[in-house]
Write a structure and sequence with these properties.
Largest sheet: none
Shape: globular
Radius of gyration: 18 Å
Number of strands: 0
């Protein structure tokens, strides 16, 4: 039986997945460059967090320590890399291939944990494979041999690897740093790096319609503050294996939201794929409960 805190973390994780599932449909409906969207969702999140971080958590930010500060900044760098690699890949290869490759995150997470000396139970490996099979069932893998498509595939794969590093570092920092302090440093770093990327690439950062700014605000609240921030909240308690595997639910979630909001009928495979991903996640959760090493509980927000 899981503790009340663990059950709360699972509930918050479900809310987080619902939030990030809005990301792709909102981006598709927002008339702004992809990299600019990535910048503004992070910059607006920093603005929203500033009153809490600079007032309530000022002392914690000042006393974070060199290691925690550098790790938080590194996580922000990996998050920026994730956006910078994945979003352009959507214009080079098929959406199906890009989605399938960028959601390899739990595979890389499990491999890195193994290389660091952790021994994930067999059920964690099996659950990761089953969950990823569900993503493949939904998206298909239409890998092309054209140089342009292969470049897009490589970018999407790199985005998945960067996301794995982001989750792993976040789980480490959250052992001793609150969600607010960690995400503030992380998102601020991401914003600065994406701003530089937008300026170098020539992506327009302004001149949008009121409707576009409204959608950017909604994206910030749903995908960034409720999505990524809650993921950072629970990763310290649930661990990177469960958290990264659960992120696979974003794919069918986005498909169902697009069907309801944008009128894009989800493929017939969406519903069995969702069941397969949930089955894989259940295996990961079951296997993770059998870990012999007990992680330190996260600090409160």
């Amino acid at each position: 039986m899981r503790s009340p805190q663990a059950r709360l973390d699972l509930l918050l994780l479900a809310v987080a997945i619902s939030g990030i599932s809005l990301s792709a449909p909102l981006i598709a409906a927002t008339a702004a460059p992809a990299l600019a969207i990535a910048f503004w969702r992070n910059a607006m999140a920093v603005g929203a967090l500033s009153p809490f971080a600079l007032v309530r958590h000022r002392a914690e930010l000042r006393g974070m320590g060199r290691r925690a500060l550098l790790l938080s900044a590194a996580a922000g760098g990996l998050l920026a890399l994730h956006f910078a690699l994945w979003l352009p890949s959507l214009h080079l290869t098929s959406v199906a291939s890009s989605t399938a490759l960028v959601t390899t995150t739990p595979i890389w997470t499990t491999l890195v944990l193994r290389m660091r000396g952790h021994r994930p139970p067999a059920l964690v490996w099996a659950g990761t494979a089953v969950a990823f099979l569900g993503v493949l069932l939904l998206t298909g893998v239409d890998l092309s041999l054209s140089p342009r498509a292969l470049a897009g595939d490589a970018l999407a794969l790199g985005g998945g690897i960067a996301a794995a590093g982001y989750v792993l570092i976040g789980s480490e920092v959250r052992r001793s740093v609150s969600t607010t302090a960690y995400t503030y440093v992380c998102y601020a770093t991401t914003s600065v790096l994406l701003l530089v990327t937008c300026l170098v690439s020539g992506s327009a950062l302004a001149g949008y319609s009121g409707e576009t700014w409204l959608k950017l605000g909604l994206l910030t609240v749903a995908a960034q503050l409720l999505g990524h921030t809650l993921i950072n909240r629970v990763v310290g308690g649930l661990g990177p294996s469960i958290t990264s595997t659960a992120i696979l639910l974003e794919t069918p979630g986005a498909a169902l939201i697009a069907a309801l909001w944008l009128g894009q009928t989800p493929p017939l495979a969406a519903y069995p794929a969702l069941a397969v991903i949930l089955a894989g996640l259940a295996l990961v959760i079951t296997g993770d409960r059998r870990r012999t090493a007990v992680s330190a509980p996260p600090v409160e927000v």
